[in-house]
């Protein structure tokens, strides 16, 4: 092993060290963190495993740290909550080198800093492959779930989905990035740009597109016992649709395969009245999702399938 456990712990602690704060009573260094509570607490956990969720040939350590953290923070934001604390469990092979571990930790901190969330503890172990498990904790006065969609609501997304899937396609097919649109797709795959500035606090239902837009809409429809009717024409009028569509055409893909079935964009999907973002349809009586050619999204990502 290229470093001792204590060296590793000291390095990680130095990256995540926070100035004195009244809400963190006990931080990194003890058996557990102690923080002051607030109203409703939102807690979520995500794990990312090498060669399943990220690939070291495609992404540097900093981007991997950002990507994994963004996935957790998106789940907290998708409840209408403010991310506050992160607990990180890191498994390493042992040959990474301290600089690579530092880059990974700095990527985690970079994404966390965008919402003011702070790493307050975690664990480190040796394993056969790199894995990163993050527990995110947030607070909210009224959590927004998937079960509140009402007939007559509009359906909104915070930005256009499909960019991460486009980037993955480029990498798996070894397509050279020669245009700005190529670089955008690669960047969104390596570390998605979460829509931190959008205000969905008035949403009746809310989730994020960790797996796919269609899966997210299905989850809201099922939880709310309603029909989500999506209008492809509204999607086609969205900002950046033309660029993504041209990229899809250049590689022989129907762009709706990426938009509907691509995952890891972590775009927010909301229902409600006069919300910001891109309107893509409306909530109707019935069950399920309609208005789409389902054959365009046959291979959506699901574990153990």
From TrEMBL:
Residues passing through the membrane, by range: none
GO biological process: thiamine biosynthetic process
Pfam families per record: AIRS (PF00586)
GO MF term set: thiamine-phosphate kinase activity
Positions of the PurM-like N-terminal domain: 29-140
Family annotation (NCBIfam families): thiL
HAMAP family given in the database record: TMP_kinase (MF_02128)
Protein name: Unannotated protein
